[in-house]
Amino acid sequence: MSMSMSLSVDEAGRALADPAAYADDARLHAALALLRREAPVHRVESPGYNPFWAITRHADVMEVERDNTLFVNAPRPLLTTAEFDAIRREQRATGRELRTLVHMDDPQHRVVRAIGADWFRPKAMRALEPRVRELARRYVDRMVEHGGACDFVTQIGVHYPLYVILSLLGLPESDFPRMLKLTQELFGGADEELRRGAGVQEQIATLMDFFAYFRALTESRRATPTDDLASAIANARVDGEPLSDVDTASYYVIIATAGHDTTSATIAGGLHALIDHPDQLDRLRDDPGLLPAAAEEMIRWVTPVKGFMRTATADTHIAGVPIAEGESVLLSYPSANRDEDVFADPFRFDVGRDPNRHLAFGFGVHFCLGAALARMETRAFFAELLPRLDSIELAGDPELSATTFVGGLKHLPIRYTLT
């Protein structure tokens, strides 16, 4: 990986607020490497955004994640434009804010997170594993049906984890295409191909469409409970009271979107990495026992969640740099996951990497609720694909989505022979 691009530190910092940078791996990682080396805690002032501090080293990201009372999620958990920040402030003031687990802090976060936690514990994952394997087989079979060539992302990658998570929620298959489109519009708001429109109001409209869908689902599950995660959320009680319509819908949104978009990005990006590193593909096919380590490396390599924000509740320091009360920091996971101080040869894709202390699922109290499911889906897909794969190559240029939050490949044209 060449790091020879000529960037100033300020230009590197502004790349973190530029969705196009995340669609250009070379540009992004050149910027992040420069920041880690010269300004690991760097104040970013970028047009259209409120200022923030970029945190790019693994150790510093960990320090912030560990102290969830000094650094809190509210009121700015995501890097969004100043215009969007203002709209969210107005929604919060009037009680209309969609608040997912991402937006909450303890003690509320702990109580609300517990509602869905049992559905992602090891016992539940073991019960779900046969279904996940069955779906993995179905989508590898679908690759065969495509006749040896496909756009892996649009024809396979986005559908398999979507089917898993929406089945867990208990949504009808007829609604899956709608959920896929809404998710792509939500996370692809900065991408010309994926977004609904260029303005903030179109992003708000996407959230409102999610809200309307899940409000109807809540009413249905409260009237007629069923044995699925949607019913568990709809009928949950906190301090003896059901969740508000806003909080119920917010819970569904985070499960239904993050529960599949991040995994599809990992699987597609992992396949791309294997194509680009045929020695690692051969190594993995020769030793299937490496699959758990390979899945972790794919997750590190892709890092689908690009960053979360935290806000300081008191004056403090990070790596000796003063951070004032009320100032926000951006935790850059792609940077932490390429930190030369933590990962040997971090720009080498290594299916046997051990240890692999990546932070793609976050750390601490906000560690990803669905991490075990994402790992299982990734392992299951490649466990089904690799024994049947005779050859594979790119059939065009892969394309990454423009984003500052969640993203990965949006196109991966491939040719292959499968049995």
TrEMBL record:
Keywords, sorted A to Z: Heme, Iron, Metal-binding, Monooxygenase, Oxidoreductase
CDD domains linked to this entry: CYP142-like
PROSITE patterns: CYTOCHROME_P450
InterPro entries: Cyt_P450, Cyt_P450_B, Cyt_P450_CS, Cyt_P450_sf
One Pfam entry name: p450
An example Gene Ontology molecular-function term: cholest-4-en-3-one 26-monooxygenase activity
GO biological process entries: cholesterol catabolic process
Oxidoreductase listed as a keyword: yes
Family: Belongs to the cytochrome P450 family.
Protein name: Cytochrome P450
Record organism: Streptosporangium becharense
